[in-house]
Each structure stands twice: as structure tokens, then as C-alpha cells.
């Protein structure tokens, strides 16, 4: 198995939320994805591009077009996208026609800065999936590898299930 | 994509080391793997079997035969094995002739009980790999999916590389 | 030194904030103070009373009167109050006339559920201060023991300083 | 209340233990005390002196004499010493004749690098105690402030109790 570099595109979402006491609220802060990869002793080559810091409910069509264009233009064929979970499937649909790449979207239901979070596990799932799965668009959440065009988020239950 | 249940076999290793003050040392304790899967919001069906609690330098041929027999007899075709990293490749070799299963070995270089550990990320890699990769034996460490028969651990450097 | 039991009164505040993905926001949840004391191997006798779960900007005069009445009526002479930091000094003023007790208010600038938080340290400060300081009202924040009637929170700077 | 600077002397102990995979064992590493103080948003002035990195079972009379000399010679009157718990009371006895200083010894039963550790809480206890208690030698462990000359460690039970 060869090990070409992985492109990691961060767009915001709960995974990157931080609590700001002076504002009495949470906001998406500088991405912690690169730090997570370092703590996880990742030596596989990768490149991180922080595209935006948005809750996925606030992503516009222009934002999704930017995500698509970034991935399409990149030399990498293995791509991970960290993204808010609420509209992850909408972005996935826009990536479906990109050929020759294995693209995996993931995120988290609890911020990575929390002591107990699904963030590192989900990131690991995506990093493995982009290497092991066949080309196409995938979502890794709740311990499952999903075909990204055949999954939905059940918001109340806090989990992804087959659509 | 269908989602058959995953068998998770735990054998010990650094991933499960705990510090016992009364003994002034680290020992492998009750596996934390099931707790990690819960914290990671895994709803994908799985079953955990705690086979042993050994440092992989102490695994005997009988131990490895037991690991093999457990996996071969199980109904699951998707299998994750958590294992000490030092002799992970030796156990992998003994699993190579099991047909029709996707078996992924992983472990960690820092105990899962540490605040900063590669454990959750590596477990996520393995859980994704057993679903996405084709049948055979794999190792997920340091952010890479390796063919388990073509990798070695560089102990001094603390990482796995292509053999 | 004798070790009479400590009364720990929890009122909410950032220290107890949890992130709820289904609501896309942080809310004060079941207090984690008792869990923090357990993780910190506290064997000193104590009793936890969860009075309310409020951001301190939302505390009313009735809320503060309830906090005061609870402390005044309790048999314990050593008291810790976990509280939002924004109006901690207002509650402290209302406790100043309670005689014969050492009352220490503390809180946190980052939720205790975060991997990196001042919560456990601040709680430890308060638990020690109620045993070591003379009777009166104290605040422990930012590594300092303050006379509670002579301190203010500098909200923008995120710290407490002598008033 | 005034806030003179605190001297923090680190000597090793479980609080600073790290796991080294290449060695398959734990060792006392670079002290994490300064980082804990930073994470805990300590703005109170302090100075950290890393004297040694020893398990307290390995401290010699010369080591304890060095700890004593460092504290006696320092300008600070408020002193915290982080120390292995096994012979903490022995070192405390050697500090009892230093006049005019409030000296607090603490440590931890689980390494600070663990996700669940008593380390930050205990450090907070000591930092508060050196400001609030009267001059003398104290130990803060298990949620209690102890007169350091009247306490012992019950090793099997993993806790400190009145001697």
C-alpha cells in the first residue's frame, strides 16, 4: 500500500468550538485539527488548509462552492474534510461529481477541546477511510463508514443513520 | 454500504496501561476500549472480548494461537484487535491465513488514560479500516493504513514504517 | 488541625457548562463538582448541595437570598460555593454578615468538562482555603486568595484583581 | 490581603511521571507544574525552580538538605513544594525549623499527564494554603490541609491521614 499525502480541509463546526468567558458563549476558534494529528503521532504526510470557521447551519452556497473548488484543484487524491454535522450531507452532495479522489467528511458532536469528545476517534476514522475506501464521497460518524449520499443526521437522537 | 457488527478483541498493551501508586508502577488494567467507543458516540453494533492483559513482549505462542482461534471462530467478518505495539506484526503474521475477514490491529504509544494520547485516534482508524478495506490483515498506526505483512515498528523512533 | 466536614454549595456558572449538540449551544448541566472531588481523591468529609444551575448574570436577589439562607442554616463552619464568575462578588457581599464560618467562593473561566480548564485547580484552592483561612468570606481565582469584599472581576482581561 | 510572590520548588514524584513507550516504562520527566499553573489561569506572581526529578523513595539526605537550603535561602515567604508522596513527611520534618515562611508540600497519586488526576486540585490546594495558613509546614493531600508533622501516608489505602 502506498501512502500519498492527505489533504485535510477544516471548515469549522462543533469540533472546533471553544468557550469564551468574556463573551459568555462558545465560538468556533482556531482549528485544533493539526494539534490532534500531532498528539495522535501521525507521521503520514498531510497538509491542513483552514478554509473557514463556520457552524454548518451558516454555510452559504458560496462557502460550499469554495470547499468544492479547493478539493477539486488540489493535487491530493486522499482528502479529509472536518465540518459541522448539521449540514455535512449537503456539502457531501456537492462533492459527488469530483472524480478520482477519496473524500471523507467528519466532525464531532462534542468539541475536541472537551476531555470526553468523539473528535479524535472520528478524525482517525476519516484519516483511515480516505486511504482504505474506494474513490467517492464518504462520511465517518458514530463508528460507521457511510456512503455520503445515503446517510442523514438524526438531530434529536444525535447520530447519523442510513437514509 | 451495510454495517455488520464489529468484533473488538483486546489483548493489553500500552493502550490499556494504568498507573498504580501503591506499586509505584504502570500495569495493564481493565480495558478502557469499551469506554472509548462509548465516549466516541459509536452506535455501530460491536462486541468487545477482553482476551488477555499483556504487554506484547510477554505474549507466548499459545497466546497468539488463542487470539487467532478466537477470531477464526467468531461470526463477525469485521475485526479490530487492540494489541501492544512491540510484537503487533508477529501476531498479524499468524492471522494472515484466515479467509473472508477484514482484520485490523492497532494499539497506542501512550496509554488511553493519558490526557494526550494517540489511543482514540488509532481506535477510530481501525474501526473505519475494518469496514472500508478489503479482506486481509491491516495495521493502523501513526496515521497510516499498512498492509500488516509489510510493516515494521521502528522502536527507537516510536513509529511504524513500511518494511 | 481538625477536619470538620465541608459544605459545598453549587449554583452553576461556567464551571458546570456542557455543550449540547442538538441545541447548538452550551448550557449549565448537572454539576460535575462531586465528580471532580472524587477524581481528586478527596477523602476529607464533605456534602454537596446543588442549589441552582444558573449563569451568574441571571441570578436574582431571591437566588442570592437562598444561597445565603442555605449557608447560614447549615451546621458546617467550612463552606465552598461554586458560582459563575461575573457576579461572584455580589453574592459574596450578601454573605459578609454570617458569623463564625469560613466561606470561599470560586468558579472557573473554562468549563470543568474541558481538557484544559482552571476548574480543578480553583476547586482545590477553595477546599484548602476554607480550612486554612480565618472566618470570613474569601474568593479564590487566578491563583490568589482574595478578601471577597476587596476584589473585582476584570471581565475583558478574564481575571480577578484587588478592588 | 497582600499577594507576595510564591516560590514553587519541584522535586519529581508521581505528579511528574511520563510514560515512555521506547523504554516500556514510566520515568519522571520535565516538570509539568508550570504548565498546570498556566492552564489554571494563575496570574498571581510565582517562580518555579526544578530542583530534581526523583521518585521520593530515592531521595537521599543530601537531596533533602538541598531542598531545605533552597527554601531557606529564597526571598519568598510563601513556598509550595511538589514531591513524591511516599517520603513527603520525611522532607517536611527537615523543613520544620525554617522560620517566617509558610511552606506547603503536595504531590499526586496519579500523574498530572493523566486525563483523570488529583494533580491540578492538589496544586491548587497548596497554592491557596501557602497564602491563607499561618507560617509553618503543611501538607495538602486528599482534600485535607494537614499539619505536616502530624500526618502519615497510608500507602496501601492510597491516602494521607492524621498520624
From TrEMBL, chains A, B, C, D:
Its EC number is 3.5.1.1. It comes from the Bacteria. PROSITE patterns: ASN_GLN_ASE_3. Keywords: Hydrolase. Residues 6-156 form the L-asparaginase N-terminal domain. SUPFAM superfamilies: Glutaminase/Asparaginase (SSF53774). InterPro entries: Asp/glu_Ase-like_sf (IPR036152), Asparaginase/glutaminase-like (IPR006034), L-asparaginase_N (IPR027474), L-asparaginase_N_sf (IPR037152). One of its GO terms (molecular function) is asparaginase activity. This is Asparaginase domain-containing protein.
Amino acid at each position: 500500500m502506498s501512502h500519498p499525502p492527505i489533504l485535510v480541509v477544516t471548515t469549522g463546526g462543533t469540533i472546533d468550538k471553544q468557550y469564551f468567558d468574556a463573551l459568555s458563549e462558545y465560538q468556533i476558534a482556531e482549528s485544533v485539527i493539526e494539534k490532534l494529528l500531532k498528539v495522535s503521532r501521525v507521521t503520514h504526510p498531510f497538509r491542513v488548509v483552514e478554509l473557514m470557521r463556520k457552524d454548518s447551519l451558516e454555510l452559504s452556497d458560496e462557502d460550499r462552492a469554495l470547499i468544492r473548488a479547493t478539493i477539486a484543484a488540489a493535487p491530493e487524491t486522499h482528502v479529509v474534510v472536518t465540518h459541522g454535522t448539521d449540514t455535512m450531507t449537503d456539502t457531501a452532495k456537492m462533492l459527488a461529481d469530483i472524480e478520482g479522489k477519496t473524500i471523507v467528511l467528519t466532525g464531532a458532536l462534542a468539541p475536541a477541546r472537551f476531555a470526553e469528545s468523539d473528535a479524535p476517534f472520528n478524525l482517525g476514522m476519516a484519516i483511515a477511510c480516505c486511504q482504505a475506501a474506494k474513490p467517492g464521497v464518504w462520511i465517518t460518524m458514530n463508528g460507521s463508514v457511510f456512503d455520503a449520499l445515503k446517510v442523514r443526521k438524526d438531530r434529536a437522537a444525535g447520530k447519523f443513520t442510513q437514509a
